Amino acid sequence: MRDISASTITEAVARLCVEACCRLPGDIHTAFEKARQSEPSVIGRDILGQLLENAEIAEKETMPICQDTGLAVVFADIGQDVHITGGDFTEAVNAGIRKGYVEGYLRKSSVAEPLFDRKNTDDNTPAVLHVRIVRGDGLRLRLAPKGAGSENKGVLKMLVPADGMEGVRKTVLDAVQAAGPNACPPMVVGVGLGGNMELACLLAKRACVRDLNSANPDPRYATLEKELLHLVNRTGIGPQGLGGLTTALAVHVEWAPTHIASLPVAVNINCHAARHAEAIL
Amino acid sequence: MSDAIVKHIRAPFDEATARSLRAGDSVRISGTILAARDAAHKRLVECLDRGKALPVDLHGQVVYYVGPSPARPGQPIGAAGPTTAGRMDAYTPRLLAEGLRGMIGKGYRKPEVVEAMKKYGVPYLAAVGGAGALIARRIRKYTVLAWPELGPEALAAMEVEDFPAIVVIDCVGNNQYEAGQTPYKTLQEAV
Ligand code: SF4
Question: What is the pTM of this model?
Answer without folding.
Answer: 0.94
